[in-house]
Design brief:
Length: 203
């Protein structure tokens, strides 16, 4: 067996080795008492560690079950999540948010359809650092109302010196589904699947 992949000895193997050592010790030169006590102490510590690990595993499993149960309450709720994907309903303006890491002299917001084509560009102008909210009426550059569907938005911001201002996008949507993978809950929002931990707020 490759030493690099060897598993640590369990308490049963440790006890077997200790018993074998006692069985084959030299009667004329028995194991030193101090050494024997030290080995017993190691065995006790090993057994306690195994019990602690088992209890921690049970605690983690219980905590995961509670988190998964709590995630089911998100179904049907409107949530705000990280990312720039949102669902547009024709005739009803869409609100989305973003956060600027610094003051911006110019902010450009591009709206894209499901194919990635830019359908509208918004210019909110100069904005201060922090959380910003924008409303889109669902019309393209020619003023035509676009059909309902999945859209996305992207932020391009520059400071007074023309340097880029990093930003983070957020969107709102109704949780339509819930999926568990390896104990991690994922919610379906605006047609996309995201970790429930990415939900920022619930309405």
């Amino acid at each position: 067996m490759d030493p690099g992949t060897a598993e640590p000895l369990g308490k049963d193997v440790f006890l077997q080795l200790l018993t074998t050592q006692l069985q084959y010790q030299d009667p004329l030169d028995p194991t030193d008492g101090t050494q024997f006590v030290a080995e017993l102490a190691q065995f006790t510590q090993l057994e306690q560690s195994a019990e602690t690990n088992a209890q921690l595993a049970q605690l983690i499993e219980s905590n995961t079950s509670l988190n998964n149960f709590g995630a089911t309450a998100l179904i049907g709720k409107e949530v705000q999540v990280e990312g720039g994907v949102f669902t547009f309903e024709s005739g009803s303006p869409s609100n989305f948010s973003y956060e600027l890491s610094g003051d911006a002299q110019e902010v450009i917001v591009q709206i894209m359809d499901a194919s990635g084509s830019i359908v509208s560009t918004l210019n909110p102008g100069a904005q201060a650092a922090g959380f910003q909210t924008l409303t889109w009426d669902g019309r393209n550059a020619d003023g035509n109302l676009l059909p309902s569907g999945e859209y996305a938005f992207d932020i391009s911001a520059r400071d007074i010196e023309g340097g880029p201002v990093p930003s983070e996008t957020f969107s709102r949507g109704v949780v339509s589904g819930l999926l568990f993978e390896e104990g991690i809950p994922y919610v379906t929002v605006n047609g996309g699947r995201i970790p429930a931990s990415d939900v920022i707020s619930v309405r």
